[in-house]
Amino acid sequence: MVEVASLLIRGVELLSGQRADVRLAHGRIEDVGSLAPRSGERCIAAAGGLLLPGLHDHHLHLAATATARVSVRCGPPDVLDAAMLARALDRPGTDWLRGIGYHESVAGMLHRSWLDDVTGDRPVRIQHRGGRMWFLNSAAIARLLANSDGPPTGLDLASGQLFDADRWLREALESRPPPLNDLGTELSRLGITGVTDMGPANGTVEHAHVASEQARGALPQRVVLAGSAQLDAIEDSGWLARGPHKIHLHEANLPPYEEVVAAIIAAHEQGRGVAVHCVTELELVFALAALREAGPDCADRIEHAAVAPNALVSQIAEMGLCVAVQPLFVAERGDAYLRDVPAPDWPHLYRLRGFVEALRGDARAGRLRIRTQRAAPFDHVARHVPVRQRIGGQSFRRLGRGARAVRGGLATGAAVPGIIRRRLQAGARASAGVAAVDRGIEQFGQRRPDRLHLGPVGLGSRGFA
């Protein structure tokens, strides 16, 4: 890290469309206007690029994302069928091979015998894209059992399918949290200056790991760490804050309703909200009922809200809940949705416009967080054309009004409640960072930027030169 007394960014376009210079000093935006450089001051020529407040990814899994960089992609859109999967797994080596992103549309629910035929004696584990299931070949099962006290409840030895046993898997692998240098750098280059890690099992070990990565400069982003009840006693620091208690629902195995209500109440008593994972309509109905009975808190969140009919959107707005949505999934996975999702549910999938319209104009209504996939924050704004253009001539719907509202929210800070709170104005904190993209507001959103001129710009011990 390099300490910088002050930094002048010249010739930027602000979100209002105004051209100006911006000076950062002592962790704050000191001045905005037509500014002359000071003696010895570092200057960056923005050449009319758009200046944004630092972006925040509201739903990320830091360790999983870092590990994914050295894993084999095993599902759509990279892998579409069994033959493609076999080719993807055909890699030299004898040590562990880790696959990610698998979906049963590729080759069904994988069986250890199929993996044995394809991978031989090399230990292989492949994670389902839902995050809760792993598929193991025989070599993997043998190695894991040899390094543990026996199979966990979630392991079906006949099929090699492992469900909800990540902690056992980590212990059997003797794995350590991965270094976050490369991920921190990638996020910085995308202008992302803060993240919320939403791992349901996050506890004291994960908290210590994130803190150590921040301390050694590997992770320059501010982090909100959601997770288990282990975090209840954790004290916030300037760059690492305790987030909501994560509740991961699974429609096929819902927890006792009374236990969920009790968990919500307990989290509220500890000064924490809850974040409830909901990717089916039934899960969302269950979550909203439990939140209503426990009493909703302004820090409560719904993660994904993958299927949200109008009646449930209205309930979310009424209770003032935050929603972390992923509308880009419709573009990335639309072919599978058309095949696997009943047509009546298509208008309710990963909605954006419906939430925008439900939340607009009501100060008491909920808040919206738009999360990205593969750390591509500008793809959401760029796709304000029909979402699907390559699904056999069909498209789910047009997201134009919703995506333009997001664009407007970046420009005004008000069109979409809760999307952006920081302002590029004198006196505002600069330590959260700013990011400049290579076009002005009129072109912003037509396509993703070719590059960012700079990543986070903070001053002092977390500054970048």
**Low-confidence parts lasting 5 or more residues at pLDDT below 50?**
383-421, 431-435, 444-465
Question: What is the CA-based Rg, rounded?
Answer: 23 Å
Q: Give the averaged pLDDT, no decimals.
A: 80
The largest sheet, given as strand count, sense and whether it forms a barrel, is:
8 strands, parallel
What's the helix count?
A: 15
Structural class assignment: alpha/beta
CATH superfamily of the largest domain: Metal-dependent hydrolases
Biggest sheet: strand arrangement: 6-13-14-15-16-17-18-19
Q: Which fold name corresponds to the CATH topology of the largest domain?
A: TIM Barrel
CATH architecture of the largest domain: Alpha-Beta Barrel
Number of strands: 21
Structural domain count: 3
State the separation between the terminal residues, measured CA to CA. Answer: 8 Å
From the spread of the alpha carbons, the general shape counts as: globular
What is the percentage of strand-forming residues?
15-25%
* Helicity range: 25-40%
Just give the CATH class of the largest domain: Alpha Beta
Structure overview:
The protein has 465 residues and is α/β, with parallel strands linked by helices. It has 3 domains: 97 residues, Urease, subunit C, domain 1 (Roll); 111 residues, Diaminopimelate Epimerase, Chain A, domain 1, CATH 3.10.310; 173 residues, TIM Barrel, CATH 3.20.20. α9 crosses α10 and α11 crosses α13. The longest helix is centred in the middle third of the chain and has 14 residues.
